[in-house]
Amino acid sequence: MNIATYIPPGEQDPNDLAWMREALNMAEEALANDEVPVGCVFVKGGNAIARARNRTNEWRNATLHAELEAIDHLLPTHPAPLSSITLYVTVEPCVMCASALRQIGIGRVVYGCGNDRFGGCGSVIDVNSSDRLNTHPAYIAEGGYYREEAIMLLRRFYMSQNPNAPKPKAKATRVLKTDFLPIPTTPSSSRPPSTTPTSIKRNSSSSTPIIPSSGDSTPALEIPPSSSGSITDDFVGSLDSEKTILPIGSTLASTPVPGPID
């Protein structure tokens, strides 16, 4: 049973939406690099301290989800528990990532759309809140922030064609639609106040503040509804057989490292 928590649009904090827009920017970068478009930002005290995107295809490593990519660079300077940190991620963390977040003692997770196949924050398994785990305490996980934009990014990814795939699928005849399943209705929870997104720096070598983006939401695209009915359009969250897989280490010199940035 799906027990994920979704916050109605009218109750969503503007600060949370601003940070989610930053996570969407990272997801857009992933999409531009033929990765499953998931992006995230870790925030502490009003500052982004790490951000990342999926790199599973780039490094041929199914564990390099956005959350784990950021955690690798975050822990050396911010050791667990991370109870004062909020993670903003465009898609509900999978079971693997939700477990990792529980183990590092994350304080709160805010996500865009649900992950009906592998969600670890209530859509499939409630790793974030289960009392069967004896690691760090349960953490708050709330979805629905720019949900449709997050879904559209995933659908745009799965509409793409790759003639170099082992078994390429013909997708040219697919018609984009704007249909979305209704957002699950859940009671509002008691939530801690959001951090105010100010004085962000993207990396230590830049002195230019990066302020969360604002403006209209992503334009609606036409997209076919998922054959399974999943609101994330059959999201797989790991290596995708239809995407170009780069040799390991092929972009080592040019790949920016999303390390601590405060």
From TrEMBL:
Pfam families: dCMP_cyt_deam_1. GO terms for molecular function: tRNA-specific adenosine-34 deaminase activity; zinc ion binding. The keyword Ribonucleoprotein does not apply. One of its GO terms (biological process) is tRNA wobble adenosine to inosine editing. Its cofactor is Zn(2+). Its EC number is 3.5.4.33. Residues 181-236 are annotated as: Disordered. GO terms for cellular component: cytoplasm; nucleus; tRNA-specific adenosine-34 deaminase complex. Residues 14-123 form the CMP/dCMP-type deaminase domain. It catalyses: adenosine(34) in tRNA + H2O + H(+) = inosine(34) in tRNA + NH4(+). Residues 186-219 have a biased composition (Low complexity). It comes from the Eukaryota. Keywords: Hydrolase, Metal-binding, tRNA processing, Zinc. CDD domains: nucleoside_deaminase (cd01285). Belongs to the cytidine and deoxycytidylate deaminase family. ADAT2 subfamily. PANTHER family: CYTOSINE DEAMINASE FAMILY MEMBER (PTHR11079), TRNA-SPECIFIC ADENOSINE DEAMINASE 2 (PTHR11079:SF149). This is tRNA(adenine(34)) deaminase. It comes from Kwoniella bestiolae CBS 10118.
